[in-house]
Amino acid sequence: VLIDQVNRAGGIGGRPIEVVNYDTEGKPDRAASLYRRLAQEDKAVAVIGPDSIFVVLGMSGVPNEVRVPAVVAAGNYELIEPKNREYIVTAWGSGGYAMGAVVAYMKDKLRVNRIGMITTADAIGQLNIKLVQGVSKLVGIEMVEAVSQPASDRDLLPSLRRLAAIKPPLEGLMVFGSGPFGTIAINQTALAGLNVPVGYIGGNVIPELIKDVGPETGKRTYIATGRMAVPDTLPGSDPFYEILQQFARDYQALHNERPAMPSGVGYDMAMPIVEALKAVGPDPQKIREHMRSQQKNLMGRQGTRFTRSLEDGYGTDPRDTVVVTIEGGKFVFKGYLKESFDRLGVKAADVEAQLREFKLIAR
């Protein structure tokens, strides 16, 4: 959408933006070789992508090597070694910590004090346990126990029943896992007897992936995410309201379908590069420096603000999200996460200290 708009308006300085597309096929080694090709043969001045954290991790040293910056869409950017972050930033506005921060809403609005967690049995699942433990402690919630199963499992009742047997009973549950794992875990809470508020972390932030969540279960499921998830129920007074309505119209006109959260992520991957091209021209080093030090409060189409720095490749405030629930197979606005943090007396400096502790902010 963005590049189409820029080019129809005459490009930048009279020159159109040319996009060279390659398919990584989800393979880190292929991504690495294609990145070198973009930089060395195609003379790309910046790269949009990859999207998967697994692919990004496998090629994370290449942007530094070729000195061409990338805006990726990795939700677990903190897994990238700090030494490899110099030329990589992420456009994913609501990473694991930000989504895990939904516990602040659960504490504030739902009076939840004791939670359990079910997650995938992999490195990212274990990282998210630590993130949720950290933010829970910050807002005054006790995480009693966390359990894991392989992401390929479809019967999660053994783990959920283990959590349901805890005494005194849990008052809430956190679920991490994208795709079928996340939906199955949410749905099977009722079968396990865990009829408690559920906080969800993962990639199931498009209607297609939550359409199978049961109606009653959906109403007690809470997600901290970008405003793009709920453009139709977002308050008209929200500073992003008109921006997102226009984006939805532009996207519909170009693609003949409604945008979802990944649509906003795609726009937000291109946006810092386009803005840098307008400001400093097609020099990769200047683009990298501009994105890391000069872009303040860019209003992304996820409904998230970006202010990156040399230390912070996310550039987002994890409190700057909305809390949504699921009704009728759609996401519905419930409130602003920052308001819950404020009522709980958690300051911005407290959150920043944790972001540094978990290396979400690091040189």
Structure in words:
The two termini are about 30 Å apart. Helices cover about 40% and strands about 15% of the residues. The protein has about 375 residues and is an alpha/beta fold. Strands 5-4-6-7-8-11-12 form a seven-stranded mixed sheet, with helices on both faces.
Strand-and-helix sequence, N→C?
Answer: HHEHHEEHHEHEHEHEHHEHHHEEEEHH
Number of helices: 16
Can you summarize the main beta sheet? 7 strands, mixed
- Give unreliable regions as ranges: none
Taking all Cα atoms into account, the compactness measure Rg is 20 Å
Query: What structural class results from the helix and strand content?
Result: alpha/beta
Please report which band the strand proportion falls in: under 5%, 5-15%, 15-25%, 25-35%, 35-45% or over 45%: 5-15%
Which strand order does the major sheet show? 5-4-6-7-8-11-12
Oligomeric nature of the chains? single chain
Helix content: 40-55%
